[in-house]
Design brief:
This protein is an alpha/beta fold. It has helices spanning 17-32, 77-85, 107-124, 135-143, 161-164, 195-208, 225-237, 252-261, 276-283, 298-302, 314-326, 328-343, 347-370; strands at residues 3-12, 36-46, 55-56, 66-72, 89-93, 127-132, 149-151, 181-186, 212-217, 244-248, 264-267, 288-291, 307-309. It folds into 2 domains: 3-156 and 346-370, Rossmann fold (3-Layer(aba) Sandwich), CATH 3.40.50.2000; 161-343, 3-Layer(aba) Sandwich (Rossmann fold), CATH 3.40.50. The protein has 13 helices and 13 strands. Strand 8, helix 6 (195-208) and strand 9 form a beta-alpha-beta unit.
Length: 371
């Protein structure tokens, strides 16, 4: 008996780390596994620009040989459906952003996030095994009573723009003068990313680097438009209208250019289940300065590379940023440590280990089906 791997997610959105991981698994599982002969993707919401075949959850009819991989990060009606389908379920836990970050902007989103944490308990009873992006995420699952928990870092397609440029994935040029020194952050416009802290730090960076410009790359999180409005008001208050750029969604080609154009990747995020852009910046040879909030996986993702700060002291962090931008010897040292950290990341190995773990949990069923 052969199986069909059915990956399920609340939503698929271009440029999203979870969607990228789903595509990687979808494109590679049949090459790696002897158990799976088919691969399918199912989602409640399918955004524009998805490069692989996916079906709406309402159109999905479970087959007897289906094995479900549920990508979990927010509440969805998919959770209720999965419990009813009675198929083997494996969870990939990408973490749930605490509702408190969204409560000041949208009670609906905050409520959905709060519900997501409660619904994890129902999944605990039906999952054969769970995979967490980080030990930070794994600890949360174990605290909730999940027993079969493995750590599988996010699957990252490094430098996707190298394959995309010139192949139809074109984005309009960004209007950044060549004489400006780019300080970069990449991440959706969501409250847990703490963009306001970045802007305040940047105000002090400008005192020493007057030609610097802060580029905040990432799409808006639907429903929290007031968050962006608050950030724009802060930019005006600090007289940085000509010095802070919100790119909105940009394609891989422009993102690739930004990573290689920038002088520093600056992160102030207060909650991350992994934080893919940290490794993307490292892969581009860009020094990383990131906040270790104590409530995220950032320290774990960095693994003694880059530079971490543990106190949100705008002046001190700005001084650290200026050093990383201007001191060539320090930059080289930081970049070398980041390169070492990247050597420990092996996407193919992580994917193979996950598939092997899933197959091991299916072996008794496989043996019966083979008789």
């Amino acid at each position: 008996m052969k199986y069909r791997c059915v990956q399920i997610a609340p939503g698929l959105n271009r440029g999203d780390a979870i969607t990228n991981e789903i595509e990687i698994i979808h494109n590679n599982i049949l090459k790696i596994s002897n158990y799976f002969s088919e691969s399918a993707v199912v989602a409640e919401h399918i955004g524009a620009g998805i490069h692989f075949s996916a079906m709406q959850v309402n159109d999905y009819v479970p087959a007897d040989n289906d094995v479900l991989i549920y990508h979990y990060g927010i509440a969805s009606d998919v959770t209720r459906r999965i419990q009813r389908w009675s198929r083997p379920v494996f969870l990939i836990y990408h973490n749930v952003t605490p509702a408190k970050f969204f409560a000041p902007y949208d009670f609906s989103i905050a409520g959905r996030l709060d519900r997501a944490r409660r619904e994890l308990l129902a999944l605990r009873r039906i999952c054969r095994a769970s995979f967490a992006d980080s030990d930070f995420n794994a600890r949360e699952l174990r605290h909730l009573g999940f027993h079969e928990v493995r750590i599988k870092p996010v699957l990252i397609p490094f430098s996707p723009a190298k394959k995309e440029v010139g192949s139809g994935a074109y984005s309009p040029p960004l209007d950044i003068p060549n004489n400006r020194e780019v300080i970069l952050f990449v991440g959706r416009l969501a409250p847990n990313k703490a963009h306001a802290e970045l802007i305040k730090i940047f105000k002090f960076i400008k005192l020493s680097r007057p030609d610097a410009i802060l580029v905040l790359a990432g799409s808006e999180y639907g429903g929290v438009e007031r968050y962006r409005e608050d950030l724009l008001k802060l930019v005006v208050e600090l007289e940085l209208e000509r010095d802070v750029i919100f790119t909105g969604y940009i394609g891989d080609d422009r993102l690739y250019e930004l990573y290689h154009r920038a002088r520093l990747f600056l992160c102030a995020s207060r909650h991350e289940g992994f934080c893919v852009p940290l490794l993307e910046a490292m892969e581009a040879g860009l020094p990383v300065l990131a906040f270790d909030s104590g409530t995220s996986a950032v320290r774990e993702t960095m693994q003694n590379s880059g530079v971490l700060y543990i106190t949100m002291d705008y002046v001190r962090v700005a001084e650290m940023a200026v050093q990383l931008v201007s001191d060539d010897a320090l930059r080289r040292s930081v970049i070398d440590r980041q390169t070492e950290r990247l050597r420990s990341y092996n996407m193919t190995r992580s994917l193979k280990n996950m598939i092997m773990d899933i197959e091991n949990k299916l072996e008794p069923v496989y043996a019966i089906g083979s008789l």
